[in-house]
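Changelog note: in this version the structure field was regenerated for every chain. One regenerated record is shown below for reference.
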Amino acid sequence: MIDTMSTTRADPASLDLMFPQELISLEVSAQLPSDLQIRPLASTDYKRGHLDVLSVLSIVNDLGEVAWVNQFHAMRATPSAYFSIVILDKASDKIVGVGTVFIERKFLRGLGSVGHIEDIAVDKSQQGKKLGLRIIQALTHISENSGCYKTILNCSDTNIPFYQKCGYVKKENEMAKYAPERVNHAPKL
């Protein structure tokens, strides 16, 4: 029996990725410890604990692998819009950090674009190792190299100092209106 997981652990080229590996900063990759790897989200990352890492941020409704893979393909089907990355522990083949930047096209600023950073999460066992910083640096690099005139994110007051260390400045305020909770949590797309 062939163990296909071990043949793909350190080789993003053999994975079904959300976007090309080349878009991730080589400088950021080089700053990670040698036992970790940063790469685009892969269609098989449900099994590597993607949702487990996201659960440090908020409640995660796990609708199963099929729904997760369908969402992956829906996001990838919008070219140059969604860039989700992971940091992978090579030895365990488990995800230990995640983040996404999505690119919003605008009519402002000469038809410019804005990068929105979302869902930055690091497994509790890996916090304090600058992985969050590396995720922010990688996503900012993707945003800037996609031609965005700015990259923005929302965070809690307690996380402001962290994002300031990443080069971000506090600007304006965030407003939110949440939709009423639905019984069926499946997206209406």
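Spot check on this record: Residues 140 and 159 are 17 Å apart (CA to CA). The helical segments are 4-8, 26-30, 50-54, 65-76, 108-111, 131-145, 160-165.
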